C-alpha cells in the first residue's frame, strides 16, 4: 500500500474515492468537535479533563529523541493529557522524565510495543534510519507493528522519508486500532525555535496520508499553532528544507545589507526602520534581527546563544543541495549559503545562532537601539 494518498486516490475506483473522502470528512468533523471541547479549558495548553480523554487512537504516545526540541514537545503532550512512553540515548534525560512519572524504555522497540503512535525527533537521517530499522528499532518485530501511526518530526532528506514510508506500507498491525487496520507514517518536521517548542507554537509541515494527518491533528495542535498538509510521503521533509533554504538566504541578505549600510555610514537601526516599512521587510529584519542591540528577546541580544545553531543550518543547507542535485534544479544561492555557514562552523561558531553571520562573517558592528 503506497503511503502517498495522491497515488492511492488516483488508482482507486470512483466508489473507493468517495468512501475515502467521506472518511476524511468524518475525521475532520470529529476533530472540530475535539477542538471545540478543548477550547473550553482555560489552560494555555489543549488539555483533557478526566471525562474527556484524548481520542482512543492517540491515547498512548511514544516519543523518541528528547533533545532541546523533543523534550519540550514531549512536555507539551504531557500537559495536554496524553499518556507518554519515552526513549533517548541520554540516560540523564530519561531519569528526569522518569521522576516526572513518565514511563521510560531502553530501546525504540520497547517504546513501539507500548504505543498507539510513536513520534521521533532526531538529529539526522542516519539517526532516524537507525531508530526505525536498527537493532531493537521500531520495526524490529518482523512485519507486525503495534502503533498504527509513526510520525517523524526530524529534519531529514525527502528520499529517506519516502523510503521509510514505503517500508512501513508493507507492515500490518498486530491488532486493529479503531478504524485503523494498517500502519501509516507521516513526515512532520517543524518550523520554530526552542522558544516556540517550549510555548507550543511550532508549525508542522506534514507529508503522507491525508487521512492519517487529519486523525493526528490533536497531537500537532498540542505541540504547535499550525499544521499544514503538504502532500504525499516526503513532501513534509521537502517543505522544511525549502523553508530553511529561504530563511538562510534571507538572513544572509539582511546581514549583508545591514553590514554594508554601516560601512557606508547608515546605522543598522535606521536601515532596519526602512526595511520594516518598505519592500525589504522580512522575518529576519522585523522579528529576528541579527544586529546586537537592536531587538530584545532574540539570539543577537544574548551573544547569539539559545537559537537555531549554525551547524544545524549548515546541515539543512547540505540537504537542500543534495535534493537540488537529485531534482536537477539550479541552486546557486543554496550553494553559497552552504559555504558561508560551513565556514562559520569551521571558525568555531557552530553552536551560535545562525544570525551570527552578521558579526562573524560580515564583521557587522553591535549597535545600541537609540543610535
TrEMBL record:
Species this chain originates from: Clitoria ternatea (Butterfly pea)
UniProt cross-references to Gene3D superfamilies, sorted A to Z: N-(1-d-carboxylethyl)-l-norvaline Dehydrogenase, domain 2, NAD(P)-binding Rossmann-like Domain
GO cellular component: mitochondrion
Residue span, 3-hydroxyisobutyrate dehydrogenase-like NAD-binding domain: 234-360
GO terms under biological process: L-valine catabolic process
Protein name, per record: 3-hydroxyisobutyrate dehydrogenase
Catalytic activity from the UniProt record: 3-hydroxy-2-methylpropanoate + NAD(+) = 2-methyl-3-oxopropanoate + NADH + H(+)
Origin organism lineage: Eukaryota, Viridiplantae, Streptophyta, Embryophyta, Tracheophyta
PANTHER family: 3-HYDROXYISOBUTYRATE DEHYDROGENASE, MITOCHONDRIAL, 3-HYDROXYISOBUTYRATE DEHYDROGENASE-RELATED
Subcellular location per the Swiss-Prot or TrEMBL entry: Mitochondrion
Main localization, broad class: mitochondrion
Amino acid at each position: 500500500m503506497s503511503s502517498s494518498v495522491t497515488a492511492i486516490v488516483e488508482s482507486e475506483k470512483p466508489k473507493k474515492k468517495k468512501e475515502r473522502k467521506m472518511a476524511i470528512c468524518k475525521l475532520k468533523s470529529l476533530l472540530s468537535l475535539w477542538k471545540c471541547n478543548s477550547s473550553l479549558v482555560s489552560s494555555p495548553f489543549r488539555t483533557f479533563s478526566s471525562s474527556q480523554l484524548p481520542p482512543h487512537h492517540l491515547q498512548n504516545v511514544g516519543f523518541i529523541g528528547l533533545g532541546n526540541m523533543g523534550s519540550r514537545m514531549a512536555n507539551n503532550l504531557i500537559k495536554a493529557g496524553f499518556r507518554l512512553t519515552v526513549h533517548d540515548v541520554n540516560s540523564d534525560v530519561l531519569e528526569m522524565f522518569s521522576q516526572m512519572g513518565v514511563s521510560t524504555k531502553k530501546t525504540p522497540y520497547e517504546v513501539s510495543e507500548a504505543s498507539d503512535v510513536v513520534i521521533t525527533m532526531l538529529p539526522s537521517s542516519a539517526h532516524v534510519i537507525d531508530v526505525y530499522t536498527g537493532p531493537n528499532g521500531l520495526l524490529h518485530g518482523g512485519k507486525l507493528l503495534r502503533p498504527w501511526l509513526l510520525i517523524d518530526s526530524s529534519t531529514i532528506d525527502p528520499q529517506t522519508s519516502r523510503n521509510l514510508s514505503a517500508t512501513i506500507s508493507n507492515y500490518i498491525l498486530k491488532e486493529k486500532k479503531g478504524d485503523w487496520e494498517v500502519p501509516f507514517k507521516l513526515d512532520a518536521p517543524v518550523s520554530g525555535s526552542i522558544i516556540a517548542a517550549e510555548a507550543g507554537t511550532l508549525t508542522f509541515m506534514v507529508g503522507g496520508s491525508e487521512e492519517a494527518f487529519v486523525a493526528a491533528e490533536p497531537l500537532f495542535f498540542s505541540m504547535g499553532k499550525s499544521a499544514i498538509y503538504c502532500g504525499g510521503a516526503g513532501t513534509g521533509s521537502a517543505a522544511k528544507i525549502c523553508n530553511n533554504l529561504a530563511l538562510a538566504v534571507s538572513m544572509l541578505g539582511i546581514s549583508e545589507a545591514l553590514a554594508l549600510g554601516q560601512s557606508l555610514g547608515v546605522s543598522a537601526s535606521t536601515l532596519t526602520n526602512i526595511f520594516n516599512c518598505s519592500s525589504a521587510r522580512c522575518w529576519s529584519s522585523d522579528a529576528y534581527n541579527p544586529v546586537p542591540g537592536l531587538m530584545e528577546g532574540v539570539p543577537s541580544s544574548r551573544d547569539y546563544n539559545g537559537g537555531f545553531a549554525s551547524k544545524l543550518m549548515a546541515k539543512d543547507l547540505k540537504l537542500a543541495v543534495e535534493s537540488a542535485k537529485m531534482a536537477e534544479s539550479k541552486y546557486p544561492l543554496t550553494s553559497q549559503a552552504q559555504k558561508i555557514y560551513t565556514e562559520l562552523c569551521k571558525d568555531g561558531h557552530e553552536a551560535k545562532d545562525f544570525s551570527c553571520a552578521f558579526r562573524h562573517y560580515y564583521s557587522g558592528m553591535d549597535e545600541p537601539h537609540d543610535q
